Amino acid sequence: MAALVGHGNTASPSSRPSHRWTTLIWALLTLIYQVWGFNLDTTHTLHKLGDRGTFFGFSLALHQQLTPDPQSWILVGAPQAAGQGRLRGSRPGALFRCPITPEEYDCERVDIDGDVKRERESKDNQWLGVTVKSQGIGGKVVTCAHLYELRQRVSKPSETRDPIGRCYVLSEDLTERDDLDGGEWKFCEGRPQGHEQFGFCQQGLSVSFTPDNNFILFGAPGTYNWKGEMRVQLFNQTLLDLGYYDDGPYEVADQKQLNAQLIPVPYHSYLGFSVDSAMGIMSLGELTFVAGAPRANHTGAVLLLKKDNVYRLVPQHIFWGEELASSFGYSVATTDLNRDGWTDLIVGAPNFFDRKAEIGGAVYVYLNPFGHWDDQARPIRLNGTYDSMFGMTVTNIGDLDQDGYGDIAVGAPFDGDGKVFIYRGSDAGIETKPAQVLDGRDFDVRRFGYSISGGLDIDSNHYPDVAVGSLNDSVVLFRSRPVIHVLREMSIDPQNIDLEQNNCQGRDGVCVEVKACFTFTAHPAHYSPHITLVVHFEADTERRKLGLPHRVNFLGRSSLEPEYTQTEEVELHRQLHPVCTTAVFQLHENIRDKLRPISLAITHTIKPQPPRRHSAKKLEKLPPILNVSPSNTLHSEVNFLREGCGDDKICQSNLKLSYQFGTRPLNSDLFTPLPKDEYDVQVFSLSDQRLVVLEITVTNMPSDPLYPEEDGDDAHAAQLLISFPNTLSYAGSRIPPQMRCQANSNGSQVECELGNPVKRDTKLKFSINLSTSNITIETTELTADLLLTTISEQPDLVPVTAFAKVVIELPLSVSGLARPHQLFFSGTVRGESAMTSLEDIGSPVDFEFVVSNPGQALQTFGSAFLNIMWPSELVNEKWLLYPASLKFKGHPDTHCSNTAALNPLKLQSSSPDEHQLANHTVGRTRRSHPEEEGQVMTKGSVGRITPDVAASERRKSLKLDCLLGSARCVLFQCPLHSFSGQAVFKIDARLWNSSFIEEFPTVSALELLVRANITVKSSIKHLVLRDASAQVPVMIYPEPGLADQSWIPWWIILIAILAGILLLTLLVCILWKCGFFRRAQYKDKLPQYHAVKIPREDRPQFQTEKSGGVHKKEWATHWSDGTS
Fold it and tell me: Which domain of life does the protein's organism represent (predicted)?
């Protein structure tokens, strides 16, 4: 950037290094001051105090006289001041004039009408000083006593007192010098009295002068039963001297007719409670009068009036309040806020209330729509705090900062100790955020802001000042500081940083020179103070906002300053005279961020002047202040030369990420991905004690190989940020040499630098080792948040969550065996009632189920159960396998369910040694089936049949299984309490011999299945059991010879044969009797043939086939069998 054109000195970067620490402190103080205020000075205020209880400060006005000697005053009303002279002993009120000095008690009482005619008037509690106004420089002053009383028939029972009010006009030196001066401004005197007319007129509650100073305005809110009235009266002595007496006076009810019906507000509206006037409200060049009526229609109203004829003020527009009892119109003011040539209207409503929004008072700003007012006008509403009475006073304070826009002040005397809010005008109309807030607490004043006066330059610095009154008998004068507008420019050399080129003078490294030039303008043009600017250079501001380290070092900084800042001073002696200063910074070596530009911020402030001793009678000259707009900070940046970013020098990377969880045994490089479920989600088993590894692959390749220039550029400062939940933590990594990973103290976050830059067509594969020590049984998933970052342009980088499902696999298993595992049935059929002992049922068999738990106790996960599907009956409800007893080796409190199904017939063994005999029998039968004892039959061994059974192989075999529906089962459910190791369940049973003899006499072999499994009842949803089931087969064969004994006896066969022969004989006899065997009879005659000759004429004709000739039959034949 080019330097500002003009001659100027360049300050040395190292000038006055010993004073830089003081410069830095002053700059900080200046910044703090500018944050909290604008150009009203709050450190050199003037305080004026009055007697306690006099309401000194109830009203005030800034006044400046030119003759006989130039003098500035603060005129202060004290409506409860005690009387003097003949008024001693009463409180008529008073007007005080206070000189512009630092003294607090040097205010003088203005001599106003110290006489009283007690037979016709009363001045006790007349509230003289309730209002005070000044025409401005060299103008007149008016103050009023709105409770001044006219008395009639004094000291008689019929005495009347009428508070009509009166006003006093004084010349610029606060004396009576011409015919306009004096206290005869009481237009309600001599008119009909009583509250319906003018008996409670209360003239002077509000008073004002027109901008051209030709008229004076009086408000009389008690007129016409408190309907109110406003009177406009000619006030130009020159016009009076020229004989212009027909211009007024004007009243809303017509000064001649006194017709209350002409006033467009109802009774008790208090019209005239506030008054003002201005040009350019309804039309340019026309004077418009403004009157507030805060009780009109119970909401309040403001009337715009104009002179209609010689005596009447005619309403042109009425603004109505929006809320009940808001006192809309309590105060009014006019000014041009947006500098469009039209006067805008400001209305106070101090009793506006909104409970939800905590609003206590409001000010309505009506921007002038070029004179076209209508009912749809939407004002800007400024809101006060709860119970603050915000808007009790609104005042046009002139152009405080001389920016061409009018400014206003709003009083809120009940906001804490009282506050005054300064609002600046702007092109938009008004800045709704106050430019400055004056707090009475800072000046030890209560009810601060009850009255405000401004718009007059008291200290002759060409900026208007503001005086603020209170109900605490004190007044504070705030003077405006001159505002300067600083112009600045910045140049940077070089504009682009080449890290390969060392350009620092006298040292190695890369340096950048920043040059800033300053000048200023102010109002007025001849104002040229000596200004010292404190210039603060700051680099890498945006990067440090992100919490990243800076990359530069200013070479000319002081030892008290950080590396990334440097502070200099610039001396400005007059307007539009530029002065420059320079700062040089050097880049750190081996910086990682080579893509993000180095941001620069140059902030300038005015160096505060140290306090000086000053005279007690002379005001100290105020120093200037910087304008709040534009910002006093100038921003710029320095870019790096970018390589690997294509022809457009814009790095558009295309980083992509993929991942997979896996395991790696200790001391091994073998990576095995975790298995996936049916939803293609990886599954991690909690029983797996191997190291969990997160394998990550990062690529930077063009998204479209046909158009590689679109993306895939170098990814500068590429990083991968990994965040783990509480269940996982960083336990190491296996990364390529160019990468570096670093974890925080607890291993919950890992930052991996992928490369600076990650070149085009790069593929990185690395793995992060994860510790699973914090995984609990409540853990349902493994997650890791992965976020790729780069300072290259790639807006589609979003966090990716690596996910794997966690299951808890219980290491429970169940196995079973039957002793013996082959049984035989034989003998005779016996009914259930014939059973007297267990031995009567059939062959004994013992089932043993073993539950193994090599892991931790089961109570950690929930309640586990062993379920045994016991085939007790056939489908036809005949006994199949009779359970005699159940025994458990393990926890003593184990009680299985459905114990009623154990030995339901309550049979006992006939002999204690019977079981041993049974085992001997079993041993005998095993000689035909030479499998080892304890071997569980499997599906493969079922097909091996002994030689004795092989003889019956031609007959069928069956399977008895509850799942197949060939048997009916009883469920035995046994709880598995906390245990580790093994638990053994044993069931003693008997094969029901009679059922097999009856149902399966011809079956060669039967397979009986007893099933068992383990179930877990737990709140842990991801708990799984694998292969926690078993089936125990028992082979059952009929005894050899049982099938032969089942043939039909010979005598049954003989009887069957004889019965068949008898039945055949009987059938033959019946058929014979019915003639079934009788032959059919025919007559012994032969068939006869008769020939009859037919006459020629009766012969039928026929045609032969060959010749086609026609012949006649000569004979007719007829057959007869002799039956007819």
Answer: Eukaryota
Look at residue 29 in the predicted model and tell me its pLDDT. 44
**Bridging pattern class, strands 655-664 and 672-673:** antiparallel
pLDDT at 832: 84
Nearest CA to 349 out of 300, 421, 416, 277 is that of: 300
46-478 matches 813-940+947-1046 in fold: no
Query: Which residues are CB-contacts of 1111 (< 8 A; sequence separation ≥ 6)?
Result: 1101, 1102, 1103, 1104
Map out the domains of the chain as residue ranges. 10-37+483-590+605-614+622-628, 46-478, 655-810, 813-940+947-1046, 1088-1120
Give the Cα separation of 580 and 572 in Å (integer): 10
Q: What is the pLDDT of residues 870-906, one digit of tens each?
A: 999 999 989 999 999 888 876 667 788 888 888 888 8
* CA distance linking residue 304 with residue 322, whole number of Å: 18
| pLDDT number for residue 717 | 83
496 in helix, strand or coil?
strand
- Whether 641 contacts 651, CB under 8 Å: no
Determine the topology of domain 10-37+483-590+605-614+622-628 in CATH.
Immunoglobulin-like (2.60.40)
The DSSP code for 243 is T
pLDDT of residue 1089: 55
Q: Return the residue matching tokens 């919490």.
A: 547
3-state SS record for 744-791: CCCCCEEEEEEECCECCCEEEEEEEEEECCCCCCCCCEEEEEEEEECC
Whether 1099 shows a pLDDT value over 70: the answer reads no
Locate 1003 and state its tokens.
Answer: 């079956």
CATH 2.60.40.1530 fits 813-940+947-1046, yes or no: yes
Task: Give pLDDT tens digits for 361-372.
Answer: 999 999 999 999
CATH of domain 655-810: 2.60.40.1510
Least confident range from 82-96, 602-616, 1073-1087: namely 1073-1087
pLDDT at 145: 96
Sequence-distant (≥ 6) Cβ neighbours of residue 100 within 8 angstroms: 46, 72, 73, 74, 458, 459, 477, 619
Residue 455, helix vs strand vs coil:
strand
| Whole-number pLDDT of residue 939 | 31
- Give the contacts of 350 (CB within 8 A, at least 6 positions apart): 327, 330, 331, 361, 384, 389, 390, 391, 392
Tens of pLDDT along 493-552?
A: 998 888 888 899 888 899 999 999 999 999 999 998 999 999 999 999 988 888 889 999
Distance CA 209, CA 207 (A): 7
pLDDT at 610: 77
> Concatenated DSSP letters for 53-86?
TS-TTSEEEEEEE-SSS-EEEEEEEETTPPP-GG
- CB neighbour class for 391 (10 Å; exposed up to 12, middle 13-18, buried from 19): buried
What rounded mean pLDDT belongs to the chain?
Answer: 84
- Spell out a b/e string for 528-548, using b for 16 or more CB atoms within 10 Å of the CB, else e: ebebebbbbbbbbbebbeeee
Contact 841, 882 (CB under 8 A): yes
Say what the pLDDT of residue 796 is.
87
| Cα–Cα distance, 359 to 413 (Å, whole number) | 15
Backbone angles phi, psi at 912, to 5 degrees: -60, -30
**Are 646 and 504 contacting, i.e. CB atoms less than 8 angstroms apart?**
no
Q: Give me the pLDDT at residue 596, please.
A: 79
Q: Give domain 46-478's CATH architecture.
A: 7 Propeller (2.130)
> Buried b / exposed e across 962-971, counting CB within 10 Å, b at 16+?
beeebbbbbe
Q: Give the integer Cα–Cα distance in Å for 417 and 468.
A: 13
Q: Beta strand 800-810 with 683-685: parallel, antiparallel or unpaired? A: parallel
